[in-house]
Amino acid sequence: MFLSRILFFSLFIGSVAGARTEVSFAPVTEVSDRSVLTWADLAVVKSGTDELLRELAQIPWTREADPRAVLRERRLMSDVYSRLNVKFVLPAKMEVKRVSGYNSAEFRRKLLNQLSVICGECRFEIRHLQDARVRLPSDWSMDESAVKAAGSLLVPVSSASRETTWIAVQLKIQRPGLVLKRSALIGQKIGADDVESRDVDATFARETPVRLEDLSQAAVARTLNAGQTLYPSDLRKEEAVKRGQIVKLMMGTDDFEVSVSATAEENGRAGDFVKVKNTESGKVLSGLVTGVGQVRLQ
């Protein structure tokens, strides 16, 4: 065990607008006794990316190095910090405890970092971790490809000697969603006044909760009760174009757009591609349904 004293600092890079990616370090951090430690071994990352994690893995950690000087140097080598609007936070005093062999605290930290990359808007809680019998040397690594935003995981960890152990993990996952304020009957339209936004339990959800924009031109696919979280399978988009309907066929760019009348050859919802027939030339074309009675030539 050794102690590194680092003055507190918060480094803000890039615009202050938008969601902030954060890289922070705890006052006391446990880590396996590796021959070379990097910032990826010690950091807690929020709303990060795989690119950021790879970048942190390129920064060696030593108690002698001034982290501010290290970051200034890395800024010259990579623009990842400015592009991701990264904020760095270190405590006034940082103690790093090196532990021989596999370390559960480090596994938890790296697992949550990877989960944050998969879903930056989610909140993850490790409910159970079955790793009491893991016996691996300090050079172990986690198979990141096995990490998914799911309630139950089996994550393999391996050593350089190719010995592999599977760790069972149970998660609790919360993410922003829409919840019905009232019951809704099949075929009924719902809007912003019928729902409220809040974090919902998505631990075992097979779909991503819908957003407000998903309610446009949509109706309830089946009867739903008040308090239910809305998922894509709960909604069905209404047909914006019907076969035989005269539609507005648009073509061109934002600077110069032309529209002509056409006849829909098939039904379509917003976002669907449908065939339409130019009423003047009789030519059949394909277009994207952009709204009620509107098709854009593709």
Note down, in words, how this protein is organized.
With 298 residues, the chain is mainly beta. It folds into 3 domains: 1-100, eubacterium ventriosum atcc fold (Sandwich), CATH 2.60.480; 176-237, Type Iii Antifreeze Protein Isoform Hplc 12, CATH 3.90.1210.10; 240-297, Roll (SH3 type barrels), CATH 2.30.30.760. The chain has 5 helices and 21 strands. The strands form 6 sheets. Strands 8, 9, 10, 11 and 12 form a 5-stranded antiparallel sheet that branches. β19 (273-278) and β20 (284-291) form a beta hairpin. The radius of gyration is 26 Å and the shape is elongated.
Helix content: 10-25%
H/E element sequence? EEEEHEHHHEEHEEEEEEEEEEEEEE
**N-to-C CA distance:** 64 Å
Low-confidence parts lasting 5 or more residues at pLDDT below 50?
Answer: 1-18
CATH topology of the largest domain: eubacterium ventriosum atcc fold
Name a few traits of the molecule:
5-stranded mixed barrel, eubacterium ventriosum atcc fold, SH3 type barrels, elongated, Type Iii Antifreeze Protein Isoform Hplc 12, 5-stranded antiparallel sheet, 3 domains
Helix/strand layout:
Layout: E1 2-5, E2 9-12, E3 21-24, E4 28-32, H1 39-42, E5 44-46, H2 50-56, H3 67-77, H4 80-84, E6 86-90, E7 93-99, H5 104-118, E8 123-130, E9 141-142, E10 152-158, E11 164-180, E12 195-201, E13 218-220, E14 235-237, E15 239-241, E16 246-252, E17 257-264, E18 268-269, E19 273-278, E20 284-291, E21 294-297
Parallel strand pairs: 3-6, 4-7, 16-21
Antiparallel strand pairs: 1-7, 2-6, 3-5, 8-11, 9-10, 10-11, 11-12, 13-14, 15-18, 16-17, 17-19, 19-20, 20-21
